[in-house]
Design goal:
The chain is mainly alpha-helical. Among the domains are: about 1-270, Serine Threonine Protein Phosphatase 5, Tetratricopeptide repeat (Alpha Horseshoe); about 560-660, Alpha Horseshoe (Serine Threonine Protein Phosphatase 5, Tetratricopeptide repeat); about 665-790, no CATH class. The protein is built from 44 helices and six strands. The protein has a six-stranded mixed β-sheet with strand order 2-1-3-4-5-6, with helices on both faces. A hairpin with a 4-residue loop joins β4 and β5. The radius of gyration is 36 Å and the shape is elongated. It starts with a helix and ends in a 6-residue tail after the last strand. The relative contact order is 0.03. Residues about 5-15 and about 715-725 have low confidence and may be disordered.
């Protein structure tokens, strides 16, 4: 209709100069969202120079039309060219900037309005306070508030409600409540502002309490109220309260409201009822991008990542364009699945630069590439980010740490702090495992101090990561001290402590802590049992191991996984029950994997059973022909029984097949740095001093009765060469470095990537007695605490 009328006017020689006609046309244009027709009408009137074309009323209508049609730029042009503005002009343009997401410009216009002598009214303040809230501009909002205290305008409910909302969203919830309590007549908007304020500031119990008070005094909640209170239920995981609110929404007949329905989907998903969330989602008559985002995020949060990817595809098929929130939600699903190709496809298909430039999306991409092992791509994106916040730095640190690049993780963590970005609890929970893996106790202690300074030690995840770090760095007493200080301990915390004792060789303490956990009413999970079975294995506790294995089914109803079967195989085989172990493996309800047979082959080497060892090696050659460990273990068994021709045959077979033994590497911390050593390493700046120290120790050890254990070296190698080769193993180089660079009496802590060999184990016992120092070596299986010539493992490892 608008188009037809305009077409007639454009060809009319003497069009009517009727003000009301054009006002009606502008009204129709914004109602019909007909921006192009509105522009034509505006151009037509300006060209004809009608008398009313310069009037304030008509300009206000034009601004209104352009704003409602979504063209803020055209609205601003009209406003800027106005000779005579009134309060309505200012209010319309201020409100427009605030609603279109430019709160800073709205506040600037407000100040300009006052400077030009216009008196703001209730509608002005109803726009400017929400603008301050959007910006989090507490001081500006407070100053504007001070400026109107004497005007009597605060008695207006709309302005008072906007003030409550502003103070709440700027984090000053006490001031918001003070103003709220002073409002004599509170309507639904006022109550909703207070409820939303509590919810957004994390005071979810207060939010629910205020929601109940609102209903008790007879104020009926509306869509906005429900949309404010449901996130509070979601955060508290208050499912029952959420279900009651769901019933109230049904009773009010507003379940079809897309905002309310989306909030319900989000609430059920975050309370773990993803099935109920999907049911509601499927029944929604209308869905917007936020609804789809809630469902995708719900699946990701509940670990149903395949469904998240599936619904993301459905969203695109129905023509809903993903926004930055969608992409930031779906990429973690790819990260959890390790679905690099799907993640790359999503990255490739992001066309909208506004979406790609979103910090949340860029961070999610860095996180996805990092968790999928594509660290070069993750770093490339990270380096291209114009601004990096704590989340992006944490994603990069976690990517390095989770992929085993612990030195890179620690280096990136240092860069983060040098850049002035303060780590949060997630950052600390990501970097502490890196310290644990490297045995970097000093750096871990520095991070511990930072956590204290930030006052986030009460965070359960951070506290648990600290306990784990101290335990894996061999400082088990400090780990226990922190564990005991934790106000709340969940199954993960208890499991970490049990594991810490087990790995450090304090098996009785591990079993005692496991019993304490049960007495505390904390139900052990699958991981807890795997840890306790591992403890039994390293201590030779066969009966206890079998008892715990059986307890999983009764009384705990935990299904045995391959990890538990591996542990029991290790328990039986280490103790020398090789025939029983073989029978157990054959009768396992799950197919034995490579590691099962590797455990068994390792026991065949320890107990020198060539027949079973050869049988197991043949199986492993078929299952995993490229695994160097099989060749090494078989070679060692042949060496133990003196069959040197077969030793040479196995080693020749390795060479012919291009299989290389993993080189032994050890790490030790010194001067707040982690120093790495490989067998025979001569790259360290202190190489001469290190080798001189080893020669000195070798002489003292021989005087004390030490003889090198060269059983696994080829028989035709000269004895002197054998001694020299053994002397230069990586852990011995690291120990020598530690003795040169630490104070007498302090502990030396070394981390090794392989199992400690018999010779190094014996030698370290002698060294600990000679230098009168504790030496802690963490190998791939466990800790060895050497002190006064003894090892905590009792020579059972």
């Amino acid at each position: 209709m608008v188009k037809e009328v305009l077409d007639i006017l454009l060809v009319t020689h003497n069009p009517p100069e009727n003000f009301s006609t054009y006002l009606q046309l502008s009204q129709t244009c914004f109602l019909k969202n007909a921006l192009s027709q509105g522009k034509k009408m505006h151009s037509f009137i300006a060209h004809r120079r009608f008398a009313f074309a310069t009037s304030t009323i008509f300009h206000n209508k034009l601004i209104h039309m352009y704003v409602k049609s979504g063209s803020l730029e055209d609205a601003r042009k009209v406003f800027d060219h106005m000779k005579d503005r009134d309060t309505i002009s200012w209010n319309t343009i201020i409100a427009a900037y605030r609603r279109h997401g430019f709160p800073d410009e709205a506040v600037t216009l407000f100040h300009h309005m006052e400077e030009t002598g216009f008196q703001p009214d209730r509608f002005t303040f109803a726009s400017v306070f929400p603008a301050c809230a959007q910006m989090g501009a507490f001081e500006q909002g407070m100053n504007i508030h001070k400026g109107i205290k004497d005007r009597g305008i605060l008695a207006d409910d709309v302005v008072a409600t906007a003030l409550v909302d502003m103070y709440a969203k700027c984090g000053n919830i006490d001031k918001a409540r003070e103003l709220f309590d002073r409002i004599p007549q509170k309507d639904g908007f006022t109550w909703t502002a207070m409820i939303g304020g509590y919810a957004q500031n994390g005071l979810v119990e207060k939010a629910l309490e205020t929601f109940k008070q609102m209903q008790l005094i007879g104020v009926k909640p509306d869509s906005a109220t429900f949309a404010s209170i449901l996130p509070a239920c979601a955060k508290m995981k208050a499912l029952e309260e959420g279900m009651d609110i769901h019933q109230s929404i049904k009773d009010r007949g507003i379940l079809s409201d897309v905002v309310v329905a989306t909030a319900l989907v989000d609430m059920y998903a975050k309370c773990g009822r993803i099935d109920k969330a999907r049911e509601l989602f499927d029944k929604m008559p209308q869905r917007n991008v936020i609804s789809w985002n809630a469902m995708i995020a719900g699946y990701v949060q509940n670990g149903v990542v395949e469904k998240a990817l599936e619904i993301f595809k459905q969203m695109q098929l129905v023509g809903v364009k993903p926004n930055s929130t969608t992409i930031a939600s779906i990429l973690p699903a790819c990260a959890k699945m390790g679905a690099l190709e799907q993640g790359m496809d999503i990255h490739q298909n992001i066309k909208d630069e506004a979406v790609l430039s979103s910090p949340a999306v860029a961070t999610a991409l860095v996180d996805m590439y990092g968790k999928c092992g594509s660290l070069d791509k993750a770093r490339e994106l990270f380096d291209r980010m114009p601004e990096r916040d704590v989340f992006s730095w944490t994603a990069m640190v976690a990517g390095y740490a989770q992929n085993g690049f612990v030195e890179k993780a620690l280096e990136t963590f240092k860069q983060m702090r040098l850049a002035g970005v303060k780590p949060d609890s997630s950052t600390f929970a990501s970097i502490l495992p890196a310290c644990a893996k490297m045995g970097a106790l000093e750096q871990g202690m520095d991070i511990h101090q930072s956590i204290k300074d930030r006052e986030i030690l009460s965070d359960d995840t951070v506290a648990t990561a600290l306990v784990d770090m101290y335990a894996k760095c061999g400082s088990i007493d400090k780990a226990r001290e922190l564990f005991d200080e934790m106000p709340q301990k969940d199954v993960i915390s208890w499991t970490v402590m049990v594991t810490g004792y087990a790995q450090n060789g304090f098996v009785e303490k591990a079993l005692e802590t496991f019993k304490q956990m049960q007495l505390a009413g904390v139900k052990p999970n699958s991981t807890t049992f795997a840890c306790i079975l591992c403890a039994c294995s390293h201590a030779g506790l066969v009966d206890e191991g079998c008892t715990y294995f059986n307890q999983m089914s009764n009384p705990y109803c935990i299904t045995h996984t391959i990890d538990h079967y591996i542990c029991i195989v290790d328990v039986l085989a280490r103790a020398g029950y090789l025939e029983d172990t073989l029978n157990f493996i054959v009768k396992m309800p799950v197919k034995p994997v490579v590691i099962v047979w590797m455990c068994f082959l390792g026991a065949c080497r320890s107990h020198v059973n060539l027949g079973l060892g050869l049988f197991t090696a043949m199986l492993l050659f078929e299952m995993d022909p490229k695994n160097a460990a099989t060749y090494v273990l078989l070679s060692n068994i042949y060496a133990e029984v003196g069959r040197w021709a077969e030793v040479r045959m196995v080693r020749r077979l390795m060479r012919d097949r291009g299989i290389k033994k993993i080189p032994g590497c050890s790490w030790i911390e010194g001067q707040k740095m982690v120093h790495a050593f490989c067998a025979g390493d001569r790259s360290h700046p202190q190489t001469q001093e290190i080798y001189a120290k080893l020669e000195e120790l070798s002489w003292e050890m021989r005087v004390a009765g030490y003889f090198s254990d060269s059983r696994h070296l080829l028989n035709d190698v000269e004895e002197e060469e054998k001694d020299l080769f053994l002397c230069h193993h990586s852990e011995k180089l690291a120990i020598a470095f530690g003795l040169l660079n630490t104070f007498p009496g302090t502990s030396i802590r070394v981390v090794k990537n392989l199992r400690v060999c018999a010779d190094c184990h014996t030698a370290t016992k002698f060294i600990s007695r000679i230098v009168e120092r504790e030496i802690v070596v963490r190998d791939v299986n466990r800790f060895h605490h050497f002190k006064q010539g003894e090892c905590s493992c009792g020579d059972y490892w």
